[in-house]
């Protein structure tokens, strides 16, 4: 478990939390953006608007269907430290559409977990502290100990198994093709959030 003690990072996190949303507020925002034919983020391209529309449907489905095993439920509810999960995301992000409902489902099981959502493009200072291989990949979950105001761990932008799939494909082909991205979406659908649940439970262990 990586512990980050840095006054600058703490101040950046506090600033971002001041403009954060609950998960329900984030879902309402995305639904409203769909109705307005718009999207979060600095770019408002037609493609990103379509991704937001698709992701709203995905999140609606996962909000209803994500299931926790008894073993996962037990581990989540046993966690006793007061923490905040601050998650950087955007409405157009395909990975986030599959993962955000799962993060929320886990957080709902334990009052000690305070889930806050922030938009990546509105929180560049925070995003820049938690890059993945130098990139602003999302969703990115930052786990903060509320008693010490220190970052104790992170998760994202994908569950470990999906990350391995992406890294292997990139190593072989140099980039992620549209075909691979479709395969990844099918993997998410088949996995039903279970790999993400496993990684989040590990954060709490």
From TrEMBL:
InterPro entries: Thioredoxin-like_sf
Protein name: Thioredoxin family protein
Organism listed in the record: Winogradskyella marincola
Taxonomic lineage from the root: Bacteria, Pseudomonadati, Bacteroidota, Flavobacteriia, Flavobacteriales
């Amino acid at each position: 478990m990586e512990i980050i003690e840095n006054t600058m990072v703490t101040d950046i996190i506090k600033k971002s939390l001041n403009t954060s949303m609950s998960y329900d507020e984030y879902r309402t925002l995305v639904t409203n953006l769909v109705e307005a034919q718009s999207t979060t983020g600095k770019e408002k391209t037609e493609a990103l608007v379509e991704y937001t529309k698709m992701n709203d449907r995905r999140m609606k489905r996962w909000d209803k269907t994500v299931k926790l095993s008894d073993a996962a439920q037990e581990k989540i509810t046993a966690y006793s430290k007061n923490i905040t999960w601050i998650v950087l995301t955007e409405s157009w992000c395909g990975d986030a559409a599959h993962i955000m409902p799962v993060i929320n489902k886990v957080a709902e099981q334990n009052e000690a977990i305070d889930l806050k959502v922030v938009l990546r493009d509105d929180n560049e200072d925070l995003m820049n502290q938690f890059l993945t291989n130098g990139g602003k990949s999302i969703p990115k979950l930052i786990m903060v100990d509320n008693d010490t105001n220190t970052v104790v761990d992170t998760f994202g932008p994908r569950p470990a198994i999906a990350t391995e799939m992406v890294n292997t494909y990139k190593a072989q082909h140099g980039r992620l093709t549209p075909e691979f991205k479709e395969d990844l979406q099918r993997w998410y659908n088949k996995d039903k959030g279970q790999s993400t649940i496993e990684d989040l439970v590990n954060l709490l262990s």
